[in-house]
Amino acid sequence: MLLLPSLIVAKIGKGGAGSPGSAGGAGNTVRLGPAFTKLWLAGTASALGVGLATVATPLLIASRTDSPLTISAAQAVAWLPWLLFALPGGVLVDRVDRRRLMIWIDWARVALMTLLAAALVTGHAGIPLIYTVLFMVNAGEVVFRSASQAMIPAVVPREGLEKANGWLIGGVTVTQNMIAGPLGAALFVVAASIPYWGNAATYAVSAVLTTAVVGTYRGVPRPRRAGTAEMAEMAEIAGGAAAPPPKPERLRAVWSEMAEGFRWLIRQRLLRTMAVLIGLLNVTLTAALAVLVLLTKDRLHLGSVGYGALFTAMAVGSILGSALGDRLVRAVTATWTIRVGLIVEAAFHLVLATSLNAYVVGAAFFAFGIHGALWSIVANSLRQRLTPPEMFGRVGSTNLFIAAGGNCVGALLGGVVSAHFGLTATYWVAFVVAVAVAATTWPVFNRAAVAQAYAGDVSSASDASEASADSSADSSPDASAQPTVLADA
Length: 489
What we know:
Keywords: Cell membrane, Membrane, Transmembrane, Transmembrane helix. With about 500 residues, the protein is an all-alpha fold. The chain has two domains: about 10-220, MFS general substrate transporter like domains (Growth Hormone, Chain: A, Up-down Bundle), CATH 1.20.1250; about 255-470 and about 485-489, Growth Hormone, Chain: A (Up-down Bundle). Helix content is about 75%, strand content about 0%. The chain has helices at about 35-60, 70-95, 100-120, 125-155, 160-190, 195-210, 230-240, 245-265, 270-290, 290-300, 305-355, 360-385, 390-420, 425-440, 445-455, 460-465, 470-475; strands at about 10, 30. α3 runs antiparallel to α4 (about 125-155), α9 (about 270-290) packs parallel to α13 and α10 crosses α11 (about 305-355). The chain starts with 8 loop residues before the first strand and ends in a 15-residue tail after the last helix.
């Protein structure tokens, strides 16, 4: 039986007896609503199709060439759009109706996947076509991801953001990371085109469900259209027919809007620190995973089944973290969710660097899955609470750009470090970096700053994170006297 998120309610404490960590408290019942349910179903269906194609594409390319360079180049083609289009895509998301943009992107991806599947059936799917479709689909995913994240605060009450983000992460984890892997490989064996037909179908389902969401979701109000008399007057002043701004002016406007989003993010210490922190830790995590297949073979003596089991353990942990995320964050506060996550991050790499026991490593992957889900919930909720609605796209896309940059660097770094200094060197470097990041960022996420951020006070949250009163905020004996982390603004 499929549980829909609109049927799940979250009880949010409101200070006093209902504050986090205290017993009792009536709380408020918050429904995520039918609009979020449609978006969740759309995203979950789309994630299943993405997972099918993600598994099938390396198999498809490997079936057409033995060149390691050609096969590995597919990863570069997939990541390149995230670096090229994340920032300008954020500008687009803030300029147009986000719902309509998502629908257009979905139908475009339906056409692209249908083209590739048909080419496979007719025997015309060469490497250039595969690369082209891969690049264009990922370019759409960059903008789609930014737009979908920007829509969540518009359809979900502020006090339900943790629950909503938990549902989104859980849905993607189940479909893309657990179901799609074995299913995509099995379908590919039957016929190489089937995973791509399936992906096209899931994009179509996503488009239909997103179309069913009622309303307009623009970041910036549409400017009033000038009347005929005004147009004539402007044309007369201009000395002729009114013309659109020249291309250099439009290009400068895009750069100006990207810079505006970047400057806003830089001024917010909590969000700035979280973005840089995730970028750095993505470098170490991607580097660690890039050589994990060698670690499991040479040190853990596991085969392909054992290698896959590690990721299954991580996915199970992620599902658990997604399901319990909002309750865990309320219980331990967002501050300690972040801080414990920093410890888990360092411990994960330490275990991989030192342990020869497959069960210990599997437990580390399970814990890391819980941590990853909780961090995503807190990071997304903080950003959605603090970012002005008209800047959701640009701020979100800047975070995507930083995260993708970390992934790209890490993918190269892992092989280079291991090749020159030994297999475990990558994990020792990752451990040292994680410890340094934890020590540097620990004071930033103090209880006062994070609680004010959850209450929606942007300026106070930034000021509090700069303050040096962290120890007094964390050591107060009266828990109920602290600002309620999930207090209603």
